[in-house]
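Minutes, project check-in
Item: structure for the 214-residue chain
Input as provided by the requester:
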Amino acid sequence: MSIRLLLVDDHEIVRAGLRALLQRQPDMEVVGEASDGAEAVWQVSQLRPDVVLLDITMPDMDGIEAARQIRAVAPETHILALTIHEEEAYFFEMLNAGAEGYIPKRASPEDLVQAIRVVARGEVYLYPTLAGLLVRGYLRCLQAGQAEPEQPLTPRQQEVLRLLAEGLTSREIAERLGLSVKTVEHHRENIMERLGLRTRADLIRYALQKGLIS
């Protein structure tokens, strides 16, 4: 039986290259494509693919939020992050959102095909250089006596936090970053919850302490 795939990337040329590669595999079938996170969630609800290849940086809804919603609407669908981002913040946030694999776009076609087969079996795939981040995070936990790695804000959340602290409204931030107002408000809620903050004054104090604003 073929592995049914949904390709999610805001660049059409990337999706075309992936489709050409994966359709040549005897055990894989591309059943759909999406160019942003919201479309990806809808496609998953309709198509029920086995594996979603999910980019992180996309307009409107990013891959992290899309992963959370995909996990909610179709827990049987496996998520493989395929992205240019290899920073620790993105890596842990994507795993926390429900991804079962994480592979950079610089990986070889052979590595990508292997990663898809691994996550389709319900196993976890981590690209070797990224697996090292997981090990280092775990070791930091042991040294600090924590049960799990501390999850820092993602670069996108830091952007939203900085602009909120500077006094911009959700609509102004959405226009500045090319996001929807709903996505900005969701980021704000996540930031407040993650940092244990309640008011804009709390946000400003935190942003000052972390050097996000002066």
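Outcome recorded: The radius of gyration is 18 Å.
No further action items on this chain.
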